[in-house]
Amino acid sequence: MLQSLHVKNLALMEETEIEFGEGLNILTGETGAGKSLLIGSINLALGGKFDKELLRKGADSALVELVFFVQDERVSGKLKELELEEAEDGTVIISRKLQAGKSTCKINGETVAAKQVKELAEVLIDIHGQHEHQSLLNKKKAYGNIGFLLWGSISETGNGGGGSLRGVQRAEKTAGGGDNGRAGACQRKILSRV
Prior knowledge:
- By secondary structure, the protein is α+β, with helices and mostly antiparallel strands.
- The chain contains six helices and six strands.
- The chain has helices at 35-45, 73-81, 114-124, 139-151, 165-175, 182-193; strands at 2-10, 13-19, 61-69, 91-99, 102-107, 110-112.
- It has a six-stranded antiparallel beta sheet, covered by helices on one side.
- Helix 2 runs antiparallel to helix 3, helix 4 runs parallel beside helix 6 and helix 5 crosses helix 6.
């Protein structure tokens, strides 16, 4: 869960911090209130493209920091895969210092490549806005989401959890065709087995 967002010297923001509560958090406000800037700053912290024009006028650098509290095995596994230390209290801190021509990303205080931040972000957060359906259109994630919703989890062997990764892979192969309609055909195939 995203606990807080800290932004410094980005666009019109000198410095701001937002604390998020458990459950659904909704950003509302009039046009021009800065909702898109807040979401954009989260995307920047997660390795999104940075334009030096986003630096606050007169500032040499900007900082965006996200603090997550996680108790998810997928996140722990991804941290191990990326050879990063996991905090004992379940906190994951992602920060990015932005300067004209370069940026520095950190996960739990360790400097990392933007690619590593993006990989971790895939299991940490999913941002949905009008006409944005990031994970819903990601074929790899769609199969995992289907299995998680139907069986709680997908096991490699099919022992436990009720479903198997192999079953999802078989359904994907039998769905055939290009990417268009494959996820839907796979979903129908899996649902027909339940």
